[in-house]
Amino acid sequence: MTARTHAALELDDIQRGVLSPRPTPYAATYILFRVDDPVHGRELMRRVSAVVTSAADTTSPLGETWVSVALTCHGLRALGVPPEALETFAWEFRQGMAARAKALGDVGESAPENWEAPLGTPDVHVVLVALAPDSTCLEMAVDRARPAYHRLSGVTAIWRQNCHALPTETEPFGYRDGISHPAVEGSGIPGSNPLEAPLRAGEFVLGYPDELGGVQTPQPGILGRNGSYVVFRKIHQRVAAFRRYLRDNSTGPEDEELLAAKIMGRWRSGAPLALSPSRDDPGLGGDPHRNNVFLYERDDPAGFTTPGGCHIRRGHPRDAAVAGVPRLHRMIRRGTAYGPPLPEGVLEDDGADRGLMFAFVGAHLGRQFEFVQSEWMNDGVFFGAGDARDPVIGAGDGPGDFTIPRRPLRRRLRALPRFVVTRGGEYCFMPSLSALRWLGDLRH
User: Fold this and answer.
1) The DyP dimeric alpha+beta barrel domain covers which part of the protein (predicted)?
2) pLDDT, tens digit, for every residue of 365-412?
3) Are residues 138 and 265 in the same domain?
């Protein structure tokens, strides 16, 4: 690692959607647009530049409410960004998520040909996201943004997904979500784990030094600097199948909850196994000052407390000595639930579409999102488990296995079905506020 120099982040130019953790509880909406007229598309950029919330605006009258705007590579092209500028963006971004499906494990039911239209198609150009603590504030944010695209005949809204916190404030499988958030140098936002040193700004914001000392900036600089890459992903969750698997592979209600905790790495309350290994502790799970303060390597290197193959340890190995330096694969991750909750105790699918809209934020699509998805979620080689995949969101063909280290005999779960199906997604670029204005002023 190179010597660390702390570059001051230009927070008033960075979209707040890049750095801020989502509120809890929350309401959110995702609106996709197609640009048929580049003149109207550029006008949209001019208008949204006045609506988008900056990372410096943390004392808005609307509180924890913000609007963000991102573009696909097709979207930048539709606005008239020159080919030579597009060539300076990450090649994964230029290819798009649908083209990267096999590498991500999006096969079979999750393959792009089965995605929800228009996700993964060249028609998706602009993504507008509004996030708020409740539906009232959300509608105020959408109303504020609506004039930006209203009466632009060359810009068409083609898809919308509304999301909301469930009454239990958990994700559809029943676990408390939105717990872990990294500290980013210069952001002024504390991380959720004080044992984790802040990461360099260039891991998340383009134009600043990253953990390796490199600086990634698409050109021209006015377009790339202070922007970020964002992965949007719609995941359908098979909640009834998940509940049935837990019931069928446990000896009773207490064992069922322990099994659920071992698969996730946390009890459903949010209490981590690392801090509460033998029983749930809802007080700990609901305490944001305590529920993420732990490491693995010092106290649990073999995974007897928190299995190496569980979901949270795969997604963020913390201080563990695994393939690749974990800090180089860290992302800002947000999940927002969609669809009605499956009533408690119901074990049969009711046909409703429910799941999560994920947003992954980082400056390196390849070594962050794609690496974690392909090497840590869909494979187990990095911790000595062969081709075993993540028990919760692992992708691929056929059933999988999951091993729980235990003395004197390990516990092995076999024939894990697919509990999630990819409904679609996009690789996007979230420009700075000045870049939005630059896009609005593009001339040919």
Assistant:
1) 27-142
2) 999 999 999 999 998 777 777 778 899 998 866 677 899 999 998 999
3) no
Does 6 map to a domain? no
**Contacts (Cβ under 8 Å, ≥6 apart) of 13:** 54, 226, 432, 433, 434
Q: Does a structural domain hold residue 393?
A: yes
Its pTM stands at 0.94
Are residues 188 and 250 both part of a single domain?
Answer: no
Q: What's the mean pLDDT in 239-261?
A: 97
pLDDT in tens, 139-169: 999 999 999 998 999 999 999 999 999 999 8
Q: Are 310 and 262 in contact (CB under 8 A)?
A: yes
159 lies in the same domain as 140? yes
Report the C-alpha gap between 346 and 218 in whole angstroms.
50
Residue with tokens 């670029």: 429
DSSP 8-state class, residue 272: B
- 209 and 289 together in one domain: no
**Residue 322: both structure tokens together:** 């695994």
198 with 307, same domain: the answer is: no
Domains in the chain, number: 2
For residue 252, the Cα-to-chain-centroid distance in whole angstroms is 34
| 140 & 224 share domain | yes
- Which residue segment(s) compose the domain that 389 sits in? 236-328+340-349+369-423
DSSP string, 160-218: EEEEE--TTSB-TTS-B-------BTTS----S-TTSPPBPGGGTSTTSB-TTS-B---
Of the candidates 32, 12, 338, the one whose C-alpha atom is nearest the C-alpha of residue 165 is 338
Tens-place pLDDT, residues 181-198: 999 999 999 999 999 999
Residues 314 and 413 in one domain: yes
**Are the C-beta atoms of residues 130 and 305 closer than 8 Å to each other?**
no
Q: Are strands 355-362 and 400-404 parallel, antiparallel or unpaired?
A: unpaired
Looking at this protein, which amino acid is placed at residue 28?
A: A
Task: Give the CA distances from residue 134 to residues 23, 72, 140, in Å, rounded to whole numbers and listed in that order.
Answer: 9, 28, 10
Q: Same domain for 127 and 218? A: yes
Residue 2 lies in a domain: no
**Cβ-contact 81, 87 below 8 angstroms:** no
Closest among 41, 51, 116, 44 to 79, alpha carbons compared? 41
What 8-state DSSP symbol labels residue 116? Answer: P
H/E element holding 411? strand 411-416
